[in-house]
Amino acid sequence: MTLKIERASEGHCTTIRLIGRMQAEHLDELKVQIKEGGSTIAMDLEEVSLVDVDVIRFLAKCQAEGIRIVHCSPYIRDWINQERTGKE
User: Fold this and answer.
1) Radius of gyration for the alpha carbons in the chain, expressed in angstroms and rounded
2) Angle at alpha carbon of residue 15, lines to 51 and 50, rounded to 5°
3) Fold that domain 4-85 belongs to in CATH
4) Which of 3, 5, 34, 64 suits 25 as a labelling partner, its CA being 20 to 30 A distant?
């Protein structure tokens, strides 16, 4: 399964729901979705089954820029935190 991106907007808030395997090759499309979203963005990772290191770095950057990451599995959240703090 590849990545499916669903976007739901309500006013200035946009939730981008990601489903499947998220890899570096999907980041360009995700950046477009974020750019087209409102002023408040949340990424719902509840149904993300697999990520790679480029995705983790991208998600860490998104968090630093104020994008909320919701429904994230513990292993992805821990990996993002490790990447942000520079620990392995």
Assistant:
1) 12
2) 10
3) Transcription Regulator spoIIAA (3.30.750)
4) 64
Nearest residue to 14 via CA among 51, 49, 53, 35: 35
Q: Please say whether the beta carbons of 40 and 10 come within 8 A.
A: no
Pairing of strands 40-51, 68-70: parallel
CA of 60: how far to CAs of 3, 12, 57, 64, 67, in Å?
19, 22, 5, 6, 9
Band of the pLDDT at 2, cuts 50, 70, 90?
confident
Q: In whole numbers, what is the pLDDT of the chain averaged over residues?
A: 92
Place of tokens 């981008």: 16
More confident residue, 58 or 39: 58
